[in-house]
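1,4-alpha-glucan branching enzyme GlgB
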Amino acid sequence: MAPRTDVIAADVIAAVAAGTHADPFAVLGLHPHPGAKGGLVLRVFRPDADAVTVLTPEGEELGVMPRRHESGFFEMRFARQERFAYRLRIDRGGTCREIDDPYRFPPILGEMDQYLLAEGRHWRAWEALGAHPTTIEGVAGVRFAVWAPNAERVSVVGDFNDWDGRIHPMRLRLGAGIWEIFIPGLEEGAVYKYEIIGPGGELLPLKADPFGFQGEMRPNTASVVARIDRHTWHDQEWMATRAARHDRSAPVSIYEVHLGSWMRWEDGGFLSYGELARRLVPYVRDMGFTHIEVMPVHEHPFDGSWGYQPLGLYAPTSRFGTPSDFQSFVDACHQEGLGLLIDWVPGHFPNDAHGLYRFDGTHLFEHSDPRQGYHPDWNTAIYNFGRTEVANFLTANALYWLKAYHVDGLRVDAVASMLYLDYSRQAGQWVPNRFGGRENLEAIDFLRRMNELVYGSDEGQGGGAVTVAEESTAWPGVSRPSYVGGLGFGYKWNMGWMHDTLRYMKRDPIHRRFHHDDLTFGLLYAFSENFVLPLSHDEVVHGKGSLLARMPGDPWQQFANLRAYYGFMWTHPGKKLLFMGGEFAQGREWNHDAGLDWHLLDVHWHRGVRDLVRDLNWLYRETPALHELDCESDGFRWIRGQSADDSLLAYARFGRQPGSAAAVVCNFTPVPRPRYRIGLPAGGTWREALNTDSALYGGTNIGNGGRIEAESVPWDGQPFSAEVEVPPLATVIFVKPPA
């Protein structure tokens, strides 16, 4: 059948029918009729329709549209001069349904949204882009908007249009490179992707929404229309006080969790966000931790990446529930007095076909030069931090989790890989910056801006939130404000302390005397940053074994070593982080495909370590001398730091209030040291607040009867001293109450 074209060219109809027309809104919907008599002409393309009838919103028939092309192009002329509301009845195979025509609605994005997105300063970009259930002109549906400036055509596809990209092509907003459409009748739960024709006419693999609020359960990869504004929050008290809870003077003890393997059902299934709120949250609260840190919850395609290769940065993973379920989980944490930190991964993203890689047929989110846009360690792409829209995408994402989910902070993964252009690259495999150096100036600017917005009051987004950098080099000022040249993070993981001390602990005690500086070296730089001492998931994978398995000696010595090490860690300057399972000395290496070995708590030694970690947490929280000056040199003083031959350390910790002090003795040999004199900074009675050798924890119960008396005998450079019973492979903590 030859095309009948009263007022539109045959090639235009053919382009619409083929799904290649660059501006479908210029063709479809109501338009002025160009004929002498004027009026309006309505054009509809529905390849799934046998017939199309035009209706008033009340259901009155205005006429059956003539078919102008066998592909499903319908056109009808009206004598009316003024635009009017209408509906369509689609007849197909003997059934009919009524719809509102997407092409009768005006543009969606406001001018300010376009301007800010183009400028790269739209800090709530998620409110403009993505899929949003909404009502326009009294009609309910979903508005979609996506950035794809180099595409020739972008369509929304899903079950609602048989995944046919010709039915819902979008409108391009010039200048911002944003494509948009409002599809009436769609609701929450609709599954969708974007069908994109790239430059030169290349039909790309279907793409998930970069701003999708929910993703399908893997292995499916589509986005899901979701609301994120329905949760009624009950954490007002927490939100009002959390800034103080993140201060350098506050006790911060973090329990790091992989939600998929903390605990599993007997059939191997995941716990939901709701079950985690009921089980994980009270457990962590009772253990005395102040925060939970979850490994990445962004939607990701591969379980084995643990979430560190995310594609849905705006979607909590569907493995455990919906966005509303995750909001309830965060709320449950706050109501129990726990902060919730998430791992955030702006350092790289995988090149899965449905993701960000070559999103519009060009290297849109990533550098086109593999020397800048490819990560050799992880076989992933690297964001182009120098592109304003990409930096905006990431910065808005950081603020999104704080705003929409009340997340209390971001632990930023692999910061070092972002800071250095030559990270994991050989000579000739990287591109110097404009000054010829190896520093990634664009990434530095991005990180500083992100931190300024999180902490700054001008945007009001953070509200006491915190950022923590996993930065493994000696980059200066990571946790210093940007206005003094720092990167602006609140805290930095102390990777050097972790590596040095674990290297020391795995040695046989008979050799430790030759490596004493592994314990003491960290104090040379302990106050150069605001440090977190991390015993993270990275230390119990890839053949490293568990923390317990890395301790030397027979089983008794292994447990004693681990208990002594924990005592050292909890009294060392710096905030604390422990990966799940470490609190009860899990024996095997972590396996992300299985739950922790909770049955080990039936064994006294494992239960003893659990009780020790709980008591260390509460002692740390309740003793100002152990946390108030964690990040300041005034809070620490060596009593005996050079007893290498004894493999023994003694040091004092101080709080802000005069007289607030704690004294710590660590013995890293299996030899008890009776009547061992140590210096003390104050006289009088000192309470033996904790002894890792207590029988309660599985030790030999050598101790000091609960207290010691400091004599006016100068020792170790201190004005007072006392003889103490030092147990083997143990840490003993004495506390002096404030004056």
